[in-house]
Amino acid sequence: MIVAVIHGPNLNLLGVREPDVYGSVTMSEINERIEALAEELGIEVTLCQHNSEGAIIDAIHQAGCEADGIVINPAGYTHTSVAIHDALKAVPLPAIEVHLSNILAREDWRKLSMTAPACAGVISGLGAESYLLAVRGIVAVVEAGE
Ligand code: DQA
Q1: Cα angle vertex 25, ends 68, 17, to 5°?
Q2: Ligand 1 pocket by C-beta < 6 Å: which residues?
């Protein structure tokens, strides 16, 4: 099984970016934890980060050809992107949306996710652990669909 993990804009700055909100863990450290979990679960992961909406859409399309499931943190595009929603709907594989922070406990405009309705589920507010739970979750969703 191959899971494509897609990090959205500004997540390359984790560790220095608003540590009071997002914690001190870097994206590389999150990726290392994901790779260790993948080994434990006996799956493959691909990891990428893009700051632009079009590149994220391209990564979703590529995952549609190569992977069995997607874990995506659309970051700021969560709240705005019809195009990422449409891309997730356009590919024939399930996705789980991830957020480090609890978007429901923040500003009102963060409470709306444009992308979540295109996903099988959302994990939000558990820091780096959100990603690890999402990887376990997408494996269960893919296996249930087989
Ligand atoms: C985020 C939450 C978003 O609202 C924000 O724009 C981000 C990160 C999170 O992981 O908590 O960039 O997706």
Answers
A1: 105
A2: 10, 73, 75-76, 78, 99-101, 103, 110
Let me know if residue 87 belongs to a domain: yes
User: In 3-state terms, what secondary structure has residue 26?
Assistant: coil
From 6, 53, 73, 126, mutation site for ligand 1 pocket: most ligand atoms within 8 A of C-beta? 73
Give the phi and the psi of residue 29 in degrees, each rounded to 5: -65, -40
Are 2 and 45 in contact by the 8 Å Cβ rule? The answer is: yes
Q: Hey, which residues are catalytic here? A: 22, 99
- pLDDT digit string (tens) for 3-53? 999 999 999 999 999 999 999 999 999 999 999 999 999 999 999 999 999
Domain count, the chain: 1
Instruction: Confirm whether 58 is domain-assigned.
Output: yes
Q: Is residue 19 part of a domain?
A: no
The answer to whether position 127 is within a domain reads no
What's the pTM value of the predicted model, to 2 decimals?
0.97
Q: Which structural domain range is residue 90 located in?
A: 54-69+82-95+138-146
The token pair that represents 22 in the structure block: 């997002």
